[in-house]
Amino acid sequence: MQTITSHIRVGVGALSIDEVVAVARHDAHVEITPEALEAVAATRARIEELADHPTPVYGVSTGFGALARRYIPQEMRLQLQRSLVRSHAAGSGPEVEREVVRALMLLRLSTLCTGRTGVRPVVAETYAAVLNAGITPVVHEYGSLGCSGDLSPLAHCALALLGEGEVTTADGRRLPAAVALAEHGIEPLVLREKEGLALINGTDGMLGMLCLAIADLECLARSADIAAAMTVEALRGTLTVFAADLQELRPHPGQAASAANIRAVAEGSAILQSATEEFALTHVQDAYSVRCAPQVAGGFRDTLAHARLVADRELASAVDNPVVALDGRVTSNGNFHGAPVGYALDFLAIVTADLASISERRTDRLLDVARSRGLNAFLADDPGVDSGHMIAQYTQAGIVSELKRLAAPASVDSIPSSAMQEDHVSMGWSAGRKLRRSVDGLGRVLGVEVLTAARAIDMREQEPAPGTRAALDALRGRVEGPGPDRYLSPEIEESVQLLTSGALLEAVEGVVGKLA
To answer: Which of 174, 202, 230 is the C-terminal boundary of a domain?
Structure first.
């Protein structure tokens, strides 16, 4: 299993995806580097210089969005920043998951620590203190259009720093923010020029969801290869199509990796060895869902690699508007537009749906007496009396259908806002929200395939490959083998949890070595 980092340092450089996951999911402690605090203080001096200047500067001495033409006198600027945060904390709908909010907060802190946003050091320090205390602002599903950043979700987080709004604590209590801050000795912020804007203007929510999805999908990619290898064995298919030299004829790296994994897991199978002669005489070729598994899983992997590249670039970014440039000028820009991240999120939703789709098709073959090569109908113990895994495939099919709907891209939509000042938006937050449902669905579909393939392999009553045996043993530690019909839903959940936790992958890699 992957080692979880318990302490990360946030500085002027980029965070890694693993660090984001460590803070978001595992409550890793955050420390701001001295160099970052120095950079923050240096650029803050420039903001304070401009605050005294009669020339309007966006975000410092003006209103926001379509109201940017109004010059705000100094005596009203504290109210300006406070009003910005309060008015933009306008989310609605279900509460967003804790790990997403923590990822969002860490990424906003990371941008503050670049020294390009112009906040005071105390703003970054307070953000880190809230993260380390396990205080999570209540953020709602709806409110971000993915341009000018994830405004509403970030505003709800900023509101908590002011001691307003609601939060949840590390032990699950829902409290007024002021109470939670007081419990941990954290002084609420009083915002000054530019700081409210710096706290809400970034792609942090969609990027956080992208980082979490990448971490999950990279594990699921290898687990999908394990599932495919198990199904090849269960169907008494052939490994010849996965030979390395055949993959080299079409040199997509993801395809080669997937094929190598399938070979590694299924090599040495007595089931496949006994079927070799029969296969050559009667079957000739496996169906596409089996034979083309590396091509589909490989395309998934290559898309995932592109998404990681986008995430790494975004993690190295300072997303705010305006920014304090290296030469000291404070200038507007368009880096808050979420298009690059939104596209990556949508790409992943598409390939996630297709990887689930091919998994469901393999499962269906295992259950069809006309195509399963000698297995009982629906893998039932006594077909007719028992239904076996008939309805497990229905569950898969329902999920796959939902994943296809979720694959419709959010990023092709745009709704103008702010009196047409913000007339093209990314909808990247929406892309992230639906991708999270897609990731969950893929894990469930693969879990059903693993459960079904394991039952089919056991019914062959021959020794499987060492890699497959490791997968079977891991599953059988939670779920009984073939027999009369039982309450099936808990067994599906056990298989899904085994797969999505990484425990199945760990068990197989313990026998065959690290999968690609």
So the answer is: 202
pLDDT per residue over 156-210, tens digit each? 999 999 999 999 999 999 999 999 999 999 999 999 999 999 999 999 999 999 9
Question: DSSP letter at 281?
Answer: I
CATH number at residue 294: 1.20.200.10
Residue 142, SS3 per DSSP? strand
| Neighbouring-strand partners of residue 323 | 331
One domain for residues 236 and 185 = no
What local confidence, expressed as pLDDT, does residue 330 receive? 86
Amino acid 401 reads S
Q: Active-site residue numbers?
A: 58
User: Is 470 in contact with 507 (CB distance < 8 Å)?
Assistant: yes
Say yes or no to pLDDT of 493 above 60. Answer: yes
The answer to whether position 1 is within a domain reads no
Q: Which domain holds residue 38?
A: 7-202
Give residue 2's pLDDT: 54
The length of the chain, given as a count of residues: 516
* DSSP one-letter code for 143: -
**Amino acid found at 206:** M
What is the C-alpha separation between 243 and 89, in angstroms, rounded? 56
Rounded Cα distance, 109 and 374, in Å: 59
What's the structural domain count of the chain?
A: 2
pLDDT at 217 over 60: yes
Give the per-residue pLDDT at 1: 47
Distance CA 402, CA 437 (A): 9
Three-class secondary structure assignment of 5-62: CCEEEECCCCCCHHHHHHHHHHCCEEEECHHHHHHHHHHHHHHHHHHCCCCCCCCCCE
3-state secondary structure of 98: helix
- Which of the four pLDDT bands, split at 50, 70 and 90, describes residue 66? low
Tell whether 233 and 187 lie within a shared domain.
no
Could you give phi then psi for residue 383, rounded to 5 degrees?
A: -55, 130
| Residues with Cβ within 8 Å of residue 224, at least 6 apart in sequence | 258, 297, 300, 355, 359, 446
- The closest alpha carbon to 301, from 256, 333, 332, belongs to 256
Same domain, yes or no, for 159 and 286? no
pTM: predicted TM-score of the whole model, two decimal places: 0.95
Which 3 state secondary structure label does DSSP give 208? Answer: helix
Look at phi and psi of residue 284 and say left if phi exceeds 0, alpha if psi is from -120 to 50, else beta: left
Picking from 183, 150, 158, 131, the residue whose alpha carbon sits closest to that of residue 19 is: 131
Q: Count CB neighbours of 248 within 10 A.
A: 10
Average pLDDT estimate for 426-442: 97
Task: State the Cα–Cα distance between residues 488 and 395, nearest whole angstrom.
Answer: 11
Instruction: Give residue 152's identity as a one-letter amino acid code.
Output: S
Whether 129 is covered by a domain: the verdict is yes
